[in-house]
Structure formats: structure tokens, C-alpha cells
Sequence to fold (603 residues):
Amino acid sequence: MVKSIIKKNNINYIFFFILLSILNIFNIAHTLKIENNKILFFFHSFSQSFLETTLFIIILSIVKSYSKLYKLSIFIISFILLIHLFNFLLLSLIDENISYLIKILFGNGIKDFLTNTKASGIGYFNLLIIISMIIFLSISIFFIYHITDKLSKKKPFYFKKNHLYLSFFLLFALISFDLLSFFKIKDIESYKKHLSYNFFYPSKNKKIIVINSNLKNLKKEEEINKLINKKNSTITIRPNIYLFIIESFRKDFINKQVAPTLSKFKKENIYFHTSFSNANCTHLSWFSIFYSYLPNQWNYYKNYWEKGSPTLKLLKHLKYKINIFSSSDLKFFQMDKIIFGKNKNLVDKYINFTDNKCWIRDEKVFQALKNNINPKNTLYVAFLDSTHSEYEWNENHKIKFTPISNSINYLTLSFSKKNLNLLKNRYRNSINYLDTLFKNFFDYLKKNNLYDDAIIIITSDHGEEFFEEGSLFHGSHLNQYQLNIPIIYKLPNKMDKIKEKTSLIDIFPTIFHSLTKKEDFYDIFDGRSIFSNNENPFLISASQNGGKNPKTFLILHKNKKILTKIKKKQDKTIFEIISVKDSSGKELKDKKLNQKYLKAFLK
Fold:
């Protein structure tokens, strides 16, 4: 009796053939980028698609007699297929999967979802399109299933459940056998990331270093406040300080053709050939600048510090006013609260421009600077956003680089990179436009005798990648394209820089050294003045991890680049070494590491 019922259960083979084909496209497409062992990865990708399709068939065959559950299962399959689609697009664009996007949008829970959506560059309109697509495609897939089900019944294909179960478990056992560990494949972790179910393939050859010491002591706010209050606040000159932070600004785009004003500015002032961001994302970079701490314990300071950053507190102690003019929403991951205090208590003037266009907001930032300039003792922080996401400029600005893409078509870029230079030209034009705003502002300062005595720092939160290593934009890779940023100092007093390498955490210690002629701030900050003899031997950058503490870091020491994941376990620190490369990016065969490379994180 049971067997006869089973035989009457035919499979909707038309739908599941289409499903298998789509899954194969999503899973196998990434194997085309692999130089070696393509057949092996092709096999794994196809096997996973087949396994997933078989599982869906089993589920539907079980719940078919329950009408509501059956319909729900079809919708769930539709949703899973959409996840595959978005996963495919994200992997093609930024070399990250959908969990990355979830971390960004929901990093602080649902309450900051809309703020994070806007600040991340996705925007409300694109979010509406995505939601509409999800609803439309889910309904479409549901109807496609029912249409193909009727068609398949005209020429039915019967199956026995026990055969189906056996096929599933045999296939599961086959792909669970980790063939990848038997092959020496370059950047195996990168390739495995593109497999839908990479938990089948644990890395057996990881380099693990366990150090019997915990991460650096977390600094308590009240203790740091006491240290700040003990510092001598007597300084003879309090020049204005202008700190410009340009969104997604890559250092190698500062040249005479793209940015003539900034190119001239860097030649006339202090500029570093090796200058890195301490993170590949905005909120960790801003934390590094304004706290002068490494961002590995960012979440602690977000949750337990209430009165703002130590650098701004010290400036207040030195009798400085603080004005903030931002073209971007600083509520992103609560940056405004973390840096400026719970009620922005450290800030004398705070303007966050909200116009739709980045270039309009940037023009307003420069106008606000002109309208609010005091003759001395004021820090002005200007956050500029035209170089973010869509790459914008004033409609009346004559563009210098053509041809350009009229907008960024993410779907097209997912499948083809042939028009990439059109996108890079948009980026160049946005920089060129900002460069004209800088020229206008510098001319204004000079005309009003405010330029010579001013401290001016121009930097960026992070760089921008254009598929040089498989990703677009930022927040995904710890490489030179996403981390190599300009850090340019114009200081009124001539001092010879000692350091050859620097990062964002050094900015405020350098400012304080210039103001006080002292460098005794080691008890407060992780950063070091560029004039200090006591420099950090390491440059450290962290990767985006949403609202949580970063887990992946790049450690630069002399000619070595160490990519590592860090875990805490009681009083031990566990370093999982991902790669060790030389300065040119070549993988080093000898991965033996002296623990001194890792002690930058320790007590």
C-alpha cells in the first residue's frame, strides 16, 4: 500500500531542472576565475547544487499532503534561491557573501537599520528596489512551480523515496570528504569562500599560534580623563586646526592630472609614501583617528565610554573649540556618540548636512568652514563625501575624464568588468571636483591671512578597490587598494619627520607634539607622533565586521604583511595565520613567525 502511494508521487522535474541549472550558474561561475584545479572546484560546485536540489525534492515530497506546509515550503525554496542570487551578486562585486551585508545593515540591531542603509551607500531607493524584487521574484517562482508542476504531470516521472534518500546521503558523504586539503592550492580560503556550503571543507593546515597573554588592557574612561587633566595645558600658540577626512580616497589618485591642488599641497608639506588606514571601513577608521587606539576593541569603547574621544578631551583641556561639519551621517554605528560624547558634549558647533546629493553637501561643508572661521584655537573637522559610492560632482563642473558611466550599474558590473574604466573615470572626476573646492578654500585662507599659521591635515577613512584583487569599493579586503590612503600634514613649525611609515592613529599625537613641543602622550594613546623617536614598529589594520569587534587584521612590519584572525580564550590569545607575504604581495613559503610580530595586540 505504501509503495503504491510512493509511486503516484511524481517529481516536478521541469522546475527542479531549472532550479539545478540556476544553482549551477551561481555556484560554478566563480570557478572560472580559478587558475588551477578548475575541475576539482567545478565538481564541488556542481555536487553542492545537486545536493541542495535533492534536499528540496525530499522536503516537498514529505510535505506534499499538507497543503499549507507545502505552499510555505515552495516560498522558502523561492527565498533560498533569492539568497543565492544576492550572494552571487555580492561575491561578484565585493568578494563577500550575504552575511557581510547583514552585519552592516543590522550591526547595531534593527534600530539603526535605516541609518546604516543610507550611510552604507545602498540608499533607501535601492533598498525599496531590492524589497520589491524579493516580493516579485518570490511570487513569480511560486507560480512558475505550479505551472511546471502541471506540465510535468502530463509526462510524469516517478521515484521511490528510499532511492532519493540514498542518493542524498551518498552525495552528502562524497562532498563531505575534504578533497581540497589534498591539493596545494594558492589562496584556498578565497576559493572556498565561493562555495555555497564551505563548512564541508574545514581548513586542516591552518597556522595557529597561541600566546599565553591576553589582548591589551582596555582603557577605562575615568583613568584616561585623570591622565588628560594632569597634562600641562599651557601652550603659547593655539593655531586653527583643519582636519579634512575624504571618504574612500585612494592615495595613488593624487596626481597633477586628477588633483593638481592636492598634488601641489603634498609636495609643499609632509607626505608619506607608506601611509595606511587602520581599517577598511569608516566607523573603525574614525575611531582610530579620534581615539588614537587600535580598533580591535572598538565595541568596548562604544558600549562603555560616554563622554567622547580622548583626543578631543585633550584639545578641550588645551582650551580649543571644536567645530564639526559633515557631509555624511555620523550616526552610522553611533560614531557621533562614540567620538563626540553622549550628547555631543565635546562639540561647540555641529552641522550634519542632509541634502540628497553628496556634492551639494560638500559645497555646504566648505561654505560652513568659511562662515565660522575663528582667528585661532579652533579645531575644524570636515568630512567630505563626493568620492563615496556613486562618485558625484557639481552639475556645472566641467568633467575632465571621459567616457563615464552615467550611474553605477551594480548588476552589469557583477557579470562584466569591461566598462570598469567608465566607473574609474567617475571616481577621478569626483576627486577632481573636490580638488577645486580645496583650491577655493586654500585661496580664501591665504587671502584672509589664515593659511600660513594653520595646521592642515588631509586624509581619508580608507581607500577604494576597483577589482584589482577581486572586489569593488571597500570593507572587504585588507590590501593596498583599500588601505593605502594619503596622510598629509601642513604644520606651522618646521620639524623633520622621523617616521617613514604612519597610520591614522598617529594624527592627533602629531598635532599635540606640534602644539606642545612634547611627545609624552604614550600613557594616553596607541599612536605616535611622526616626529617621535619612540615609534610603533607595526602598522595594523582591521577588517569590517559590522557592529562587532573586528576579527581579521593585517600586520605590517618592515617587509612582511601578516594576515591573521584573532580569538580570545580566557587568558590566551589565539592567532590564526591566514597568509604571510612580502611587501610586493608574494606569498612567503616560510611562515615561521617570531611572536614579536603579534605582540602589538598584547599587554
Remarks:
- The CA atoms of residues 20 and 53 lie 6 Å apart.
